[in-house]
Specification:
This protein is of the alpha/beta class. Among the domains are: 28-171, Rossmann fold (3-Layer(aba) Sandwich); 278-394, 2-Layer Sandwich (60s Ribosomal Protein L30, Chain: A), CATH 3.30.1330. Helix content is 41%, strand content 16%. It contains 10 helices and 10 strands. The chain has helices at residues 8-24, 38-56, 81-97, 181-192, 207-221, 225-236, 244-256, 260-276, 297-315, 333-351, and strands spanning 64-68, 72-73, 101-105, 116-126, 136-146, 151-160, 280-282, 320-325, 357-361, 384-389. The strands form 2 sheets. Strands 1, 2, 3, 4, 5 and 6 form a 6-stranded mixed beta sheet that branches. Strands 7-10-8-9 form a 4-stranded mixed beta sheet. Helix 10 (333-351) links the parallel strand 8 and strand 9. Helix 2 (38-56) crosses helix 3, helix 5 (207-221) runs parallel beside helix 7 (244-256) and helix 6 packs antiparallel against helix 7.
């Protein structure tokens, strides 16, 4: 008996339907867990993130715009030179293999046209089952948010075997390490959310303010200090922009433009915000194996301003604090604890705030770069941190 064949248009329609369905729900790609060289790992990270975003997009949609909120180094809260290398790798991968996706760093112009926002963290932490006891690796974790739905569209992570990523800030002469534990924890939670999860409402800083700050940092990095000053000032006029990163930028831009009065005012606000957030990690940098400030006349001039501003604030308030010295990761642990304590005691003496402060030495327990190179690369590890505490702890 003759049996009519299935109509060809139905077969074609079914094929397209299956194709779209298979693309719309790709298997999650979580990234590489074996430490890999940076130049190999970043294309892997980029490819996995962009593949997931492309699969989310409609088969018939036009180009999709992704903006990158610059990756943050978790130990310092800063956008670092390695962040720029990550961006460049992601953008290069998109141009090479993802013609339907446009990727660029966030700014005021492109943020409102963005379909997706990519962000990420650079961590330095142990990897279970890799290396010896205490061995740490750089760990880059990233997520992409779809703006229309407010959900996670893609996520991936890679571990880096290189030990010399450039962790210096893109903002020159930053006087403090602008880490904010609460905001970093919030960002870490975001990167850990599963695919299709809803991003919690009330994320601390709006995309508009993030875009202003990203553009300001780009201007400062390129030596356009007048533009940077304008943009950091614009961010400071927003309540959510009154954060350490903003005042660090204002300080640096004013300093580069030779405006010491403006730099002093910015540092004063920076102190107030740091105290408010109970985190003021000032980069008083010291000579190797010494309590003497680093031998740079311009830095020592800055330090006099910082000491004046910090002393003035705490002498006019009733708050108490711990002054915590740190050292680079070379030499014996006991020696470094004594050295870092001596550095903290020196700052305590110079501030003249008496019994409401207590000097402590951490050695290299909380090093930032942890290179142990005893040069400018790990100068940030030879620093002093101010921590506001209850007066009962002094």
């Amino acid at each position: 008996m003759f049996k009519p064949s299935m109509p060809s248009f139905f077969i074609i329609g079914l094929s397209i339907s299956l194709l779209v369905s298979s693309c719309a729900n790709p298997p999650p790609q979580t990234g590489s867990h074996a430490p890999t060289q940076f130049y190999v790992a970043i294309p892997i990270l980029a490819s996995q993130l962009l593949s997931q975003v492309q699969a989310k997009s409609s088969l018939f949609s036009g180009k999709q715009n992704i903006v990158i909120d610059p990756f943050v180094y978790a130990d310092s809260g800063e956008v670092i030179k390695a962040s720029r290398n990550i961006e460049q790798g992601i953008i290069k991968e998109a141009e090479k293999n993802f013609e339907k996706l446009t990727v660029s760093r966030m700014n005021q112009q492109n943020v409102n046209e963005a379909d997706y926002v990519m962000l990420g963290l650079i961590l330095f932490e142990p990897l279970k089952g890799a290396g010896g006891p205490g061995r740490k690796y750089y760990h880059i974790t990233s997520s992409v948010m779809e703006r229309k739905t407010g959900t996670v569209a893609a996520k991936s992570e890679v571990w880096i075997s290189d030990t010399n990523l450039d962790s210096s800030s893109v903002v020159a002469d930053a006087p403090v390490i602008p880490t904010d534990p609460k905001k970093l924890e919030e960002l870490l939670r975001w990167t850990k959310l599963p695919i299709d999860a809803q991003i919690p409402r009330g994320f601390s800083i709006s995309l508009d303010t993030k875009a202003i700050l990203a553009q300001a940092e780009t201007a400062a990095e390129n030596g356009n200090y007048k533009d940077a000053l304008f943009l950091f000032s614009k961010a400071s006029q927003r309540p959510e922009g009154q954060i350490l990163k903003t005042y660090v930028g204002l300080y640096s831009a004013n300093l580069k433009l030779g405006d010491l009065t403006g730099a002093g005012e910015a540092f004063g606000k920076l102190v107030m915000v740091g105290v408010r957030d109970k985190n003021l990690s000032v980069k008083f940098l010291f000579e190797v194996n010494d309590t003497a400030f680093i031998n740079q006349p311009e830095k020592r001039q800055e330090y006099s301003m910082w000491l004046q501003q910090i002393g003035q604030y705490f002498n006019s308030s009733q708050e108490c604090l711990h002054i915590i010295g740190h050292s680079s990761k070379t030499g014996e642990e006991d020696y470094n604890k004594k050295l870092s304590l001596a550095r903290a005691e020196k700052i305590h003496q110079l501030l003249g705030i008496g019994s409401r402060a207590k000097a402590l030495g951490k050695g290299y327990e909380e090093c930032v770069n942890c290179l142990g190179s005893d040069d400018n690369k790990d100068a940030v590890d030879r620093r002093v941190v101010f921590k506001v505490v209850n007066c009962s702890e002094v």
